[in-house]
């Protein structure tokens, strides 16, 4: 299936930059407001041919939240998928609401709603839904799922947290558990370590695997390397390299 360049992509870019201009006019946009990410993915194993894919994503942050546009290209599958999305953190008393929404070419959409409370110690829960249209899952966690999170944030910027995600729709056996450690480094740099434990059915076989993601952020640049076995509960393993800049 080949999804051609569509009016959605053009409309997304126009809306994206209109949002950016309005936010900057309001003087509330953080600096730097833009984040550009380039991703290179390599899938292999499972008795299937190895393949490469790429993704480009541009995000803008403002008082309106985060707005992004992206394009995913998988030449071996003759697949191109464009997307546009939004998320925001909304304080409501002692709670923080975290809604998100995304639409993609081919008529696919997904959304989520999370809630979190606490400052140093925190707890959170969330629910995600899609319309079950064929799409590329670049979240890599189950999308039709509920989630629980909790952890501790230190005043100097370090944090240690757990995130549990479990499908509650078509594949309730699929589940992810993340252990995430973030720590600040000198000169405004940051290291993030995400250890993944996953369990679920892959072609009627119950699998249990572990994955790892390492990310390093400089003030303007960032780099992330991930290994995800049985990615999206398919037979193949995936290596992901992502890098980019803030401006």
Topology (SSEs and partners):
Elements: H1 7-25, E1 34-45, E2 48-62, E3 65-74, E4 79-87, E5 90-92, E6 95-104, E7 108-117, E8 121-130, E9 145-153, E10 159-167, E11 175-185, E12 189-202, E13 205-217, E14 221-228, E15 237-246
Antiparallel strand pairs: 1-2, 1-15, 2-3, 3-4, 4-6, 5-6, 6-7, 7-8, 8-9, 9-10, 10-11, 11-12, 12-13, 13-14, 14-15
Q: How many separate domains make up the residues?
A: 1
- Alpha-carbon distance between the termini? 35 Å
Uncertain parts = 1-14, 16-29
Tell how many strands the DSSP assignment holds: 15
Order of helices and strands: HEEEEEEEEEEEEEEE
Radius of gyration: 18 Å
Helix content: under 10%
The major beta sheet can be summarized as: 14 strands, antiparallel, barrel
CATH architecture identity:
Beta Barrel
Beta percentage is: over 45%
Can you characterise this structure?
The chain is mainly beta. The protein has a single domain (about 35-50, about 85-245), classed as Beta Barrel (Porin). Helix content is about 10%, strand content about 60%. The chain is built from 1 helix and 15 strands; from the N terminus they run αβββββββββββββββ. The chain has one helix at about 5-25, and strands at about 35-45, 50-60, 65-75, 80-85, 90, 95-105, 110-115, 120-130, 145-155, 160-165, 175-185, 190-200, 205-215, 220-230, 235-245. The protein has a 14-stranded antiparallel β-barrel. The two termini are about 35 Å apart. The model is unreliable at about 1-15 and about 15-30 (pLDDT under 50).
């Amino acid at each position: 299936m080949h999804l051609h360049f569509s009016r959605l992509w053009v409309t997304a870019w126009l809306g994206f930059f209109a949002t950016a201009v309005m936010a900057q006019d309001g003087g509330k946009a953080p600096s730097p407001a833009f984040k550009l990410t380039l991703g290179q993915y390599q899938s292999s194993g499972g008795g299937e041919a190895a393949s490469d894919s790429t993704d480009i994503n541009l995000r803008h942050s403002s008082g309106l939240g985060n707005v992004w546009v992206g394009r995913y290209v998988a030449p071996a599958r003759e697949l191109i998928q464009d997307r546009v999305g939004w998320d925001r953190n909304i304080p409501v008393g002692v709670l923080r609401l975290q809604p998100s929404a995304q639409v993609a070419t081919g008529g696919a959409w997904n959304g989520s709603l999370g809630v979190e409370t606490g400052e140093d110690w925190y707890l959170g829960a969330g629910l995600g839904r899609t319309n079950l249209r064929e799409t590329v899952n670049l979240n890599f966690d189950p999308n039709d799922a509920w989630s629980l999170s909790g952890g501790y944030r230190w005043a100097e910027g370090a944090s240690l947290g757990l995130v549990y995600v479990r499908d509650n729709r078509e594949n309730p056996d699929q589940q992810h558990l993340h252990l995430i450690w973030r720590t600040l480094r000198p000169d405004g740099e940051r290291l993030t370590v995400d250890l993944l434990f996953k369990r679920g059915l892959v072609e009627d076989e119950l699998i249990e695997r572990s994955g790892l993601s390492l990310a390093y952020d400089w003030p303007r640049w960032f780099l992330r390397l991930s290994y995800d076995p049985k990615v999206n509960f398919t037979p193949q393993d995936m290596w992901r390299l992502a890098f980019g800049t803030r401006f």
